[in-house]
Amino acid sequence: MKKRFSWFTAAFAVLSAVYLYPLAMVAFNSFKKKAYISRQPFALPTAHTFAGLANYEKGIQLTRFPSAAVTSLFITVCSVALIVLCTSMCAWFLCRVRTRAGRGLYRLFVFSMVAPFQMVMFTLSRLANLLGLNTPQGIVLIYLGFGAGLSVFLFTGFVNASPAAVEESALMDGCSPIRLFFAIVLPVLQPAAVSVGILQAMWIWNDYLLPYLVLDVRRFRTIPIAVQYLRGGYGSVDMGAMMALLVLAIIPAAVFYLACQRWIVSGVMAGAVKG
Questions:
Q1: What is the rounded distance in angstroms from the CA atom of residue 137 to the CA atom of residue 120?
Q2: Which CATH class is domain 67-273?
Q3: What is the pLDDT of residues 102-128, one digit of tens each?
Q4: 207: Cβ–Cβ under 8 A, 6 or more apart, which residues?
Q5: Would you list the domain boundaries of the chain?
Q6: CB 63 within 8 A of CB 244
Q7: What is the DSSP code string of the chain?
Q8: What are phi and psi of 237, to 5 degrees?
Q9: Which of 53, 109, 181, 214 is exposed most, by the fewest CB atoms within 10 A?
Q10: pLDDT at position 139, please?
Q11: Are 197 and 205 in contact (CB under 8 A)?
């Protein structure tokens, strides 16, 4: 048993190194001079190739990175909060109030995960312009629509596994449905809410296509769009500045995931012992 465990540990260590190697190369190249990134992409920075923080300063200056970071943070935080709140309420209602219309609505949520984005992107961009949703506030509602399918599906499975006896007792004691949800149901759904929040936050923070189609990029830019604007004429790219901005874009997502890691583990354990 110990020998098998050591082999699995070694195999997963190698696999982790394979996945982390590209990220390490991006970080190393962000400190190298632009000319040496293409010539020696896999070499570590030396005294001759080391550029210091010049790539970071240039990338921030060329792309208005602080403004793009604020826009991305606003869109991500507001979208995730709205998705978690609305879809958890919806899943709780669909599980506790079983009607034919509710079952049909649940099937529509599941179907939305199957439909590819390319089917609706042209109509969506035109409709967003007509309704004035081409702002950071408006795209939050669009992300709610796209994130509802997977979120309702995950919340529904967790609600079905949760006993309804406590909720029935609270209703008999005169608790209103709104108070029941926020005082009893939402704390029980916390592991599922964290999982949904992490999945949606990673997707929204790194998303390029939807903001590019919907937002007025002359006024609002997210981090992926700002990075794309480093591409110059005739396909030329400032690789040093791009590598630096990629590192700055990765850091918040990595910190958020590491901060929520213990909640993921506790959520898995809570789901495992739930009767």
A1: 20
A2: mainly alpha
A3: 889 888 888 888 888 888 888 888 888
A4: 222, 224
A5: 67-273
A6: no
A7: -HHHHHHHHHHHHHHHHHHHHHHHHHHHHTTB-HHHHHHSTTSPP-TTTB-TTHHHHHHHHHHTHHHHHHHHHHHHHHHHHHHHHHHHHHHHHHHHS--HHHHHHHHHHHHHHHS-GGGTHHHHHHHHHHHT--SHHHHHHHHHHHHHHHHHHHHHHHHHTS-SHHHHHHHHTT--HHHHIIIIIHHHTHHHHHHHHHHHHHHHHH--HHHHHHS-TTT---HHHHHHTTB-GGG-B-HHHHHHHHHHHHHHHHHHHHHHHHHHHHHHHHHHH--
A8: -135, 135
A9: 53
A10: 93
A11: no
Whole-prediction pTM: 0.84
Structure confidence by residue, pLDDT tens digits, 198-255: 889 989 999 998 999 898 888 888 999 988 887 765 556 778 888 888 899 888 888 8
